[in-house]
């Protein structure tokens, strides 16, 4: 059951009893100020850290008073924050936290846990990515509830994958001690990663900072289309790139295919257009001559017969000449004895 808060304080919607207790005992943050601080951090990253800025632009960023613990976390698709956590951070800390979470996203940490202990996995992931951020200018470690700053970093693990770090800690008996440490828990709680399928809180409507692109929202890979591979036609919805009725050179089959018979490049039209094999026209008559001969550009096919000429000849340019030596598609050699107006020839 959703309980509406008194509007004079924050206008939020309370979805749990613990959230209601927090509301009664604490003053709600100004959502405009919370959003402004995050947007200011993103702007700084856009100006000074273009690599991270491009990645951040693809995820959803929103806040919720239902987020537990009181922190920032990601599921690989969303970056979620508790407003109180945001307001106790410095600007430099917010920059660090956003880039920390986006490294969880691009590292696919939300899908790589594979049954490992969740706290232990967060510890291993933090060891893996914090080495990339700790010396960046303009960044500071997050601020904990007690005002301390804890950065989970160990030079032993620089350049190592999270899985290898986890296995190392487990094999050397360090992992249980780290998982039980309140100091370590406080450090990882400043930027968590959870499994992608874990439930997420609903965004507070006035704390939606950014909506990611559709591919991220829908779980699709960038460039995916509804019907088949990129470049597929509208009729079949499948095939190799370049097939279909869209971009130049696309036909109903392979590029430049027609329904007739003949050598490549025969027929009329623009390069690659047609419905059958490259350069084949729609007619049934077979022309003979050098590959690429036709009445237009190579691969053109709207005419009823195969024309002849040099590749790329325009309409009626450089027609075959009587006495010209040719080789037919079945390998016969001959001399042109007659040229018809439509471009067909006779040989002896």
Account of the 3D structure:
It is a single chain. With 348 residues, the chain is α+β, with helices and mostly antiparallel strands. It has 2 domains: 202 residues, no CATH class; 84 residues, no CATH class. Helices cover 28% and strands 11% of the residues. The chain has 10 helices and 12 strands. Helix 2 packs across helix 5, helix 5 crosses helix 6 and helix 6 crosses helix 7. It is elongated. The N terminus is likely disordered.
Domain tally: 2
List the helices and strands in order.
EEHHHEEEHHHHHHEEHEEEEE
Q: How many strands, what sense, and barrel or not for the largest sheet?
A: 5 strands, mixed
Major sheet: arrangement of strands: 6-4-5-3-7
State the end-to-end distance: 92 Å
Number of helices: 10
Number of strands: 12
Low-pLDDT windows of residues: 1-10, 214-317
List keywords for this structure.
348 residues; disordered N terminus; 5-stranded mixed sheet; 3-stranded antiparallel sheet; elongated; alpha+beta; single chain; 2 domains
Write the layout of secondary structure elements.
Blueprint: E1 3-4, E2 13-14, H1 17-25, H2 31-48, H3 50-56, E3 60-63, E4 72-74, E5 78-81, H4 83-87, H5 91-106, H6 118-133, H7 162-171, H8 175-180, H9 182-188, E6 192-193, E7 208-210, H10 214-218, E8 257-258, E9 277-278, E10 325-327, E11 333-339, E12 345-347
Parallel strand pairs: 3-5, 4-6
Antiparallel strand pairs: 1-2, 3-7, 4-5, 8-9, 10-11, 11-12
